[in-house]
Amino acid sequence: MAAPFRRLGAISKRAITSLPWVAGGLRTGAVSSSRALALIPLFACVRILADSVASLPVQTYRKVGASRETLTFVPQLLFAPAARDNLYEWLHKAVVSLALRGNAYGLITQRDAFGFPTMIEWLNPDDVWVDETSPVMPIFYWQGQMVPREQIVHIPWVVLPGCVVGLSPVQAFARTIGVGLSATEYGLSWFDNGGTPPATMKNSAKTITPQESEEISNRLSASMRSRKPLVFGQDWDFTALQVTPEESQFIETMRLNASQIAAIYGVPPEMVGGDSGGSMTYANVEQNAINFANFTLRPWLSRLEAKLSALMPGKEFVRFNVDAMIRVDLMTRYQAHSMALNDGWRNRDEIRALEDLAPLPDGQGQVYLPVSLLAQSTPASDDPPGDPTEEDE
After folding, report:
1. Can you give the pLDDT at residue 314?
2. pLDDT mean by block of 10 residues, the chain; 393 residues
């Protein structure tokens, strides 16, 4: 496993003017990925996408003619995909890289006897630069050194025609993200500087010295903290202050910015602090989960499925089980199981697996006949099938 790293660790001797030595860093004035993560809606979008994708079960199949069969073993790439990462951590890193930089770059560090990858280490996109002069035959550089194309696994997010590298959402929408960061900094500065004073005390009968003003302020503050009424003499005017519309506008700005960032990633805005424009009820919770799986996760899953399937040997391919994240009530789930069993497109062992139950003994649960036919196919008599009867005679 260490061999590819040692080979790539050699000193590059190319001319300093031949190709950029920068490894894909951000341009001056752009919003960096680390700074963008300080914005709560953006961090929430990245976290929701990465957690949702990485937590889905991954199933492997093999094409057999026009049908497919489920593999009973887990390929090495999906069992221990990296030196220090399990499958969840490995997929999580890939989605985070895609969501922040629009690209996930993996270095193949180990192959099996047939040359198929068994371990892939995700690289920091800031350390990777791609020469897109020939989009059909791009050249990859990692930390300023050229890497053989067959050693790189590249998953882009949104790619323009004629390009290889995917668009970085942090760079493409730097202004939108910058508005959210500026609003956050404004709110922090507003509170750090004390905000608007809670009230003013004015005396028109005499001029108050600084010492008297401090004493009055302390007594007023102590009375407010104790939630007791304040009694004072004549000619005092007490005015409680409120936050002006201009100073409170950053709250609405933050909500709008959260909705815009949610639109970039296709995440429902109410999940990241934005405004969905409607109310959430128990009746549409399940439908929202289905919509989230279909419209938000499906494009991300399809990219990963296509790339992982291309790395599998032979006719094997990979699919994420999206149904695992859609939790319905117990009665609805059992009714769906009954329909699948009675219609004959699922057997009892498959349904038991969905409910985390062991298969039935002696292969009893592997029959695909509908239940109504199973009873008819069971012999009604205990007589041996070969014994003659008097009628036969």
Report:
1. 86
2. 47 43 44 74 92 92 85 88 95 95 95 94 94 93 94 94 90 76 64 54 71 78 63 61 52 76 90 72 67 90 94 92 72 81 82 78 74 56 50 47
Would you say 131 and 141 are in contact if contact means Cβ atoms under 8 Å apart?
yes
**DSSP letters along 250-292, please?**
HHHHHHHHHHHHHHHHT--GGGTT---SS---GGGHHHHHHHI
* Domain locations along the chain: 1-10+18-168+251-327, 175-250, 331-378
* pLDDT score for 14: 45
Q: Give me the long-range contacts of 192-200 (CB less than 8 A, separation at least 24).
A: 195/243, 195/247, 196/241, 196/242, 196/243, 196/244, 196/247, 197/241, 198/224, 198/240, 198/241, 199/238, 199/239, 199/240, 199/241, 200/238, 200/239, 200/241
Cα–Cα distances in Å, from 145 out to 21, 108, 109, 110, 162?
Answer: 9, 16, 16, 20, 24
How far apart are the C-alpha atoms of 87 and 80, rounded to whole Å?
A: 7
| Predicted local distance difference test score (pLDDT) of residue 26 | 44
Side chain identity at residue 95, one-letter code: V
For 135-153, letters b (16+ CB in 10 Å) and e give eeebbbbbbbeebeeebbb
CA pair distance 61, 318, nearest whole angstrom = 6
Provide the residue type at 272 as one letter.
V
Question: What per-residue confidence (pLDDT) applies to 200?
Answer: 59
Residues 144, 12: Cα–Cα separation, whole Å: 8
Cα distance between residue 193 and residue 33, in whole Å: 28
- Using alpha carbons only, how large is the chain's radius of gyration in Å? 32
Q: What residues are paired with 318 via a beta bridge?
A: 60
- Strands 316-320, 58-64: pairing is antiparallel
Question: Is residue 203 classed exposed, middle or buried when 0-12, 13-18 and 19+ CB atoms within 10 A define those classes?
Answer: middle
